[in-house]
Amino acid sequence: MDNNFITKSNFAIGKALEGNIKIKSSEDKLEELKSVTNQFEAIFVNQVLKQARQGKVADGIFDSPAEDTFNSLIDQEYSKVLSEKSNFGISEALFDQFKFHVSAKSKK
Predict the structure, then answer these.
(1) What DSSP letter does each residue of the chain carry, written as one string?
(2) Cα–Cα distance, 43 to 33 (Å, whole number)
(3) Which helix (H) or strand (E) holds 80?
(4) For residues 100, 101, 106 and 108, what is the CA-based torsion angle, rounded to 10 degrees?
(5) pTM more than 0.90
(6) pLDDT 10s digit of each residue in the chain, 108 long?
(7) Residue 87 to residue 108: CA distance in whole angstroms
(8) Distance CA 27, CA 33 (A)
(9) Confidence at residue 37, expressed as pLDDT on a 0 to 100 scale
């Protein structure tokens, strides 16, 4: 019975989202695209930071799973801040590439 409720809820949410997406103007869609490209850049920077942290030569004397979790979380926050404050150009390149697709679909 719970699965049926979840399925119906997911269906209702999906229909509501479809309605909201159709109502959005092209400016809203471009803002949403900009947000998504910024998030992608943050994820990309996070992966770079994660790989850089894994490249350490030796383990410290205080290494623990808790420290690994902390480093993962701090890398996520650093990546968000770096992508907002620095200009890597990834977000802008993606936005420039996809903005024509968003505006073309909204004109139809």
Answers:
(1) -HHHHHHHHHHHHHHHHHHHHHH--HHHHHHHHHHHHHHHHHHHHHHHHHHHHHT-SS--TT--HHHHHHHHHHHHHHHHHHHHHS--SHHHHHHHHHHHHHHHHHH-
(2) 15
(3) helix 65-85
(4) 110
(5) no
(6) 455 656 655 665 666 566 555 556 778 889 999 999 999 999 999 999 989 888 876 777 778 888 889 989 999 999 989 988 888 899 999 999 999 888 776 565
(7) 34
(8) 10
(9) 92
- CA pair distance 55, 6, nearest whole angstrom: 43
Structure tokens at 102: 């968003």
**Residue in the structure block whose two tokens are 């701090």:** 74
Q: Which residue has the tokens 């350490």?
A: 56
Residue 83 in tokens: 């992508």
Report which residue type is found at 31.
E
